[in-house]
Structure formats: structure tokens, C-alpha cells
Design a protein that fits this description.
- 2 copies of one chain form a homodimer.
- Chain A is of the alpha/beta class and about 220 residues long.
- The first copy, chain A, has a single domain, classed as 3-Layer(aba) Sandwich (Rossmann fold).
- The first copy, chain A, is built from 9 helices and 11 strands.
- In chain A, strands 3-2-1-4-5-8-9-10 form an 8-stranded mixed sheet, with helices on both faces. Chain A has a two-stranded antiparallel sheet with strand order 6-7.
- The longest helix of chain A has 15 residues.
- Chains A and B meet through helix 8, helix 9 and strand 11 of A and helix 8, helix 9 and strand 11 of B.
């Protein structure tokens, strides 16, 4: 499958690397073509890897992964060209966190109190099918659920389009070892408010346990 | 031990009932003495039970449980008389939720964005040792951790006073079957922001799973 990964940080690199290893054609997108980190990644990742602008990556991928800094995510979409997301399944991994005001980190004000970054992304690209997931785990765990407790823990997913959510579940199962019945569907994209809101809590648990390789398991 | 339980709702009743059954002397406090729900509870709970005003319950208990509606909790403290909380361990179970604007519920604006209800309670009664915990589980589970998965799941705790946190851990272990090593200390009372912020998420998981008898387990 052809995949677009928007973002060159640790999350983008982890997703892009794992998917190229699985045999997908992956384009890593950044603000400018020839981005240093993207070029270095292409060198390392081999023949399945290529790089380009945000817009080129959005056009390239059948599925797109948003691995953008929360504060600049909406700008990046505009920079890519909003029409390029039309009809695409867009996996939103972004977190609107503000670490500048001490611990625990806060949710950026513009994405709190009755909205969320996931919802604002869906509003910005209304012709895309935005699915929020993966944002509640460490990047190493995103791409291989089995790294913690043999994969026996949960991921949360939301979005307005049921078919797109099913596609993403299948994709995460086939590529990242997330069993589909471990993915808990929390409803429409407005549920991104709650899924984003647990990330400051995640940060505190990380501080307390000393490892980012943990996850939440819902037990009954 | 003498316990004060402030609040006559389902949470207050569950806590008060469980503690009276364990042989503690429990006073349920409400805005006015002779409150109908408190009187009914005393009838049911027997000789360990008594009822009174918020102020009487605060004075009575060696440990106090705040089982108040989040919106009115600070008012209730003022109504009780702030000096009555001095030197007391105050277990804060409140949640500042606003269900009036649809799902997921929101955090009440006055307790979001750089503060929390837990912190505002601690500021309001600075001579008390406020410990935030129990607010992330259903009231039936609060008083008996073994009701879910044999007790193998986690509770989160925060507060500024280490000794008070230890007392609460011991208390929850001895009375409510919460193993002390299942209680994860997330730091000072400012961590109440993150602990309160996961409750809208809890509500969505409840909606998705169909039962309130679940909890989060941190797996590594």
C-alpha cells in the first residue's frame, strides 16, 4: 500500500520505518522537500522510502498518518493543500500538549473546552475521514503492540466514519500487532476530546513508573 | 476510627455504608441536619451511623471523605466552616464534570486550564491534607477493589503531604481491598488536573463497554 507520513519527528520516523519494513511504499512529508531528517530517513530505510513536501505525501498516500506537532498541525494541513486530503483515511496521532507551563502538561487552550485537535483537523479537511488513535502510547509501542505485556492492553479509536475506523483497525492489526478486539471504539470524532485529555495523565504515569513502555488495559 | 463523610449521594452512601460495616463510627454530613437521605441511611446502617451538618461531620471525623457534587464542593466547605478541616486528612473524591453540553462531559471551566478541583479544595482548606483518589472508579468499586478482576488494577493518588498519602493508602487497603502497590502516586495536588481529566474518558469507555464495573490497569 502507498502510505503518506506527515512529520519527521520520532513518531513520524517510527511509523514510516515500521511501514517501509512491512513492504509498504512510504513517503515522509515535511514542510520543504529535501528536509534533512527526511533525507536521512530515506537513506536508512531503503527502496520503499521516499520523501517530499506535506502536499506530496498527502497526495501519495492511500492512508495518511498525521505525526505532527500539535501546535502546528492545522498549519501543516493548510500548507499541504486541503483538497489533497479529500477521500483519504487520515490517522490522527497528534497531541495538543503545552509543556511550557510545568507539570502536568496542559492541553493547548485552543483545543480544549468543547473541542479537540482531532475535531479541528476533521473540520479543516471535511472531505477526509479522520480517525484518532495511537496518540495515547509511546512511539515504540505504536508500531508494535507486543512490546508491552504480549500485546494484551488497549488502544482507543474514534472518528465519524465507521468504514474508515474499520480500515484503520485492520491496518493496525496487520502492521503493528494491535489485535482488533483490543481497539476500543469510543464513538465520533468529538470523543477525541477525551482521548487527547488522558495524555497529560499518561505523562504523569510515565514520570511515576519511569518507563514509557506501558499502556492502559481496561479490566472488568 | 471516626469518619466524616460529606455528601449524601450514591458515592457518599457507598463510602459511609462500607465503613460502618467495617466497624468505624461514621457521620454522614449534609447541608442541613435531619436531611432525609442521611436519616434514611442512619436507619439502615445501624448503630455505627449518625448524621449531621457538613460542619459537624468535618469536626467528627479523623479522616474525611469529600463525596460532593463537583460544582458545589467549594461552597460546601465554606458552609461547613473552613477551620474545621485543619489538621485533617481529607480524601477528595469529587469530579468537576459538566454533563449539560453533551458527550463527552466537559470539565467545569473554573476547574480547567491550569487548575483542578483538587487544587482549589486544597487552597480553600490550606491547613488540611487533601489527598485526591478514588474519583476514577465507580462507587461500587471504590469500596471493594476485588469486585473487578480480583482487584488487579490501579488507582491513582496525589497530594502535597506524603504522610497523608500513606495513611490513605493504608486505609484503602485495610477497608476497601485496594492493595497499596496498586495505588500509583502521581505527585503533588497539581496532578489532580490529570486525574480529574481522565473521567470524561472513563465515561466514554463506560458507554462503549456497557458496564461501570471496569478499571484501568497499567501494564508494562
Amino acid at each position: 500500500m502507498k502510505i503518506g507520513v506527515l512529520g519527521t519527528g520520532v513518531v513520524g520516523e517510527a511509523i514510516a520505518t515500521a511501514l517501509a519494513e512491512k513492504g509498504h511504499k512510504v513517503m515522509m512529508g515535511s514542510r520543504t522537500a529535501g528536509n534533512e531528517k527526511a533525507m536521512a530517513w530515506v537513506q536508512k530505510a531503503g527502496e520503499m522510502a521516499r520523501e517530499g513536501t506535506f502536499g506530496e505525501a498527502a497526495l501519495f498516500g492511500e492512508i495518511l498518518f498525521l505525526c505532527l506537532n500539535g501546535e502546528h498541525a492545522l498549519n501543516a494541513l493548510a500548507f499541504a493543500g486541503l483538497e489533497r486530503f479529500s477521500g483519504k483515511v487520515v490517522v490522527d496521532i497528534t497531541n495538543p500538549l503545552d509543556f511550557t507551563k510545568g507539570m502536568p502538561p496542559r492541553i493547548l487552550q485552543q483545543f480544549s473546552g468543547g473541542t479537540s485537535l482531532g475535531e479541528e483537523i476533521q473540520k479543516t479537511i471535511p472531505e477526509a475521514m479522520v480517525v484518532k488513535t495511537l496518540n495515547t502510547v509511546n512511539f515504540n509501542l505504536m508500531v508494535d503492540a507486543s512490546k508491552v505485556a504480549g500485546g494484551d492492553h488497549n488502544l482507543f479509536i474514534c472518528g465519524n466514519n465507521a468504514e474508515a475506523k474499520n480500515k484503520v483497525k485492520q491496518f493496525l492489526s496487520q502492521n503493528f500487532n494491535w489485535k482488533t478486539d483490543h481497539l476500543i471504539d469510543l464513538g465520533g470524532i468529538e470523543s477525541a476530546r477525551a482521548i487527547e485529555a488522558i495524555v497529560p495523565f499518561w505523562v504523569l504515569v510515565y514520570r511515576s513508573t519511569g518507563t514509557p513502555l506501558f499502556n492502559f488495559k481496561i479490566v472488568q
